[in-house]
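re the bet — no i am not wrong, look at it urself. input seq straight from the record:
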Amino acid sequence: MMYNRRSLTTPNLHLETANYKPKKLKVNYSEIKIRSQPVSADATGKSNAGFYYSYDKLFIIKTLTSEEVERMHSFLKHYHPYVVERHGKTLLPQYLGMYRLTVDGDEHYVVAMRNVFSNHLATHKKFDLKGSTVDREASDKEKEKDLPTYKDNDFVKERTKIYIGDEAKDKLLETLGADVDFLTGLHLMDYSLLLGIHDCTRAEREREEAIASGTGDVNAEEEDEDAEDSEGAGNTVTWANTPPDSPHSLLARDTSLCQYDAAAIIPDLDIYAIPSSEGAPVREIYFIALIDVLTHYGVKKQAAKAAKTLKHGSNVDGISTCDPEQYGKRFIEFLSKAIE
């Protein structure tokens, strides 16, 4: 985010900022600009965190509690060396900066990070997966949303799969395994795999319908030029493949799966995109990353595990709250079955 970091003033507002970005996390801040007011996302996180999109939907701004700020400080000390050691081959969140905003004397904390989903390819379905089964389905209220967040039991019930092929699966699981080992070593758990699915067939049909109704852009050449401009000198996201690196480039997958212009993957923008393999039963693009990685297995989580065990029995495989080693093992086993 690019603005005067000391103060921003309007007739009715005085805003002071402090940048908590670790010196080692080098980010080209000239490319992280909020040219208009951030857009509130239709989502709330843990601790009722607020989420906002940047104007171009490339970035997410998340509010933090003071406790989460403390966790973030502790986490980032280990995060940077790990990302360097892995040469960017990680699915951990891509943190860009943490800030304290002082508005009329009240302090607020936010973190800026890359958006997992595409800013130009529609997300038709999304899942939050933990590998557990107890209380892991979308509520009726959640399902009323335009884009509900489904969970593990919904994923299994609908027989959803991630069709990326054996070679890509092996590489993806190796990366996930390394990330899980890293989080386990820090005694962290309760993280999720965020999965967004772009249905190429549906997107192509929707585009054709839009063109037929006169609401779509029929000039493919103009779309190509626009796509090129988004990667050109004026709008180039030149740091997009700095750590964490793109799973798409990591897996070296073919980006031409979707043949129509509107669904072409732009590597510099769609850094979390992995297309389905040739011969897969569906034509999809998957957006995959780990989220909510700051939960420490301390006294509160141990108490929560005890309470859930009393309520649901001692079957730890079905309870989301368990020690980091068990959590990580179950998480990888679930995803191994989910990917084909």
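see?? Residues 66-85 form the longest helix (20 residues). told u. also The chain has nine helices and twelve strands. so pay up
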